[in-house]
User: Fold this.
Amino acid sequence: MKEERYTPNQAAISRLVGEIKQAEVKPLILIHGGGSYGHPIAKDHQIKGGYREPSQLQGFAKTHQAMVTLNGMVLEALLQEDIPSMSLPPSAFLTTDRGRIRFLELRPILKLLELGVLPVLYGDAVLDSTLGFTILSGDQLAAHLAIKLNAGRIIMGIDVDGIYSRNPKTDPSAQLIPHLTLHELREVLKHLQEETVEEADVTGSMAGKIQELIPALKRGAQALIVNAEKPGNIYKALKREQVLGTTLQAV
Amino acid sequence: MKEERYTPNQAAISRLVGEIKQAEVKPLILIHGGGSYGHPIAKDHQIKGGYREPSQLQGFAKTHQAMVTLNGMVLEALLQEDIPSMSLPPSAFLTTDRGRIRFLELRPILKLLELGVLPVLYGDAVLDSTLGFTILSGDQLAAHLAIKLNAGRIIMGIDVDGIYSRNPKTDPSAQLIPHLTLHELREVLKHLQEETVEEADVTGSMAGKIQELIPALKRGAQALIVNAEKPGNIYKALKREQVLGTTLQAV
Assistant:
């Protein structure tokens, strides 16, 4: 989905929003990635590495605005389904230091949850106290908020069935791992990191995703990684129904 | 401009963005209002008065999203002119208490100014610790930020030439007042407030605008109210050139 620019999958967005509507789980926070929107511009202008020259500023601005456009499609689908939702661009309420979340204003999110309005966040081009700007992944944001809000569960919808022993896109011997503890995770990470270079996008590979989750797992959160491209999976995950995927937890 | 819904004045947006481009004034923060976008939905669902029933939540969400849509047009025009700009929805980085700004995360705005990226804000549907939600005017936001950032000047572009002795839209004897001190302002306010009821929209009338400015004027800021519908006025105001309007300052 990340290769071509601006290929919105409106049908996928509508279906996923429908699954969220049907599941009716509260409290819930929705975080989406950049898909074909944020990544190519961010890469062209090397936004993740931070500010080096004035010509990048326009690229930084355009990366964020591309995310706003994608997010607008998600919001439209949510409001269409009568799910009261409000998007909060991370660039507006948090800053990072060397790519890690440093200051985050939580009050608007807390109030939305209290009112019963769905907060919608996303991976974003954000301001960084050392780098000037950088890219914040939705994964880091999810884990950070899970810790701050003491969330019980993080559900990650991706484009494969879960965590495999090898990269399932390139290695036919790859096996899906249904359950991983922190201890087992470190073993799997070793294999995955060898493949990081070719697979990496601006917000990191599967190895990066897992590494972001670790602090939240240590604090007691459970993470469930499922294939969001398969209809019904996000619904089942939200409803705690049996679903193909990988469950991660401390022990 | 506020009577009909969704009547974007793309030509006016482009012209005003062109004037900002030409003036090249830094540091600058741009704040826009709701025009035909935010106001009607906010009014229909009585968002300003706060949360009373669940059915308002969708109205609250839609009010904000309408502002996001309008703001997207402003951003598109700015990026088209190669002005690196980033919008920060006030609902994401501030909360109010009984309609007044209480907590505001300033770091992203400060970092944008430091980098030379134009922060773009707007009047918005925001979270309120007592009311649940309310409407924050761009006027309150402008005055609040002017104080926090110790800004020298606030330029307000409106649809009349400045402050008049009476409402110029209804009273032909109305006279434009070129300069007002705080002391003189209080006299003028008395007249204007008599007309507030029929003229008010969700973010208040001219009297409301002026009242929001007073704390900033007391701290030494100068405000200049000009007719933004007249081409060149915003450019002249930004460049400190002679322009028809009303200047407000403490003494």
Observations:
- The mean pLDDT of chain A is 91.
- Chain A has ten helices and eleven strands.
- The first strand of chain A starts at residue 30 and ends at 32.
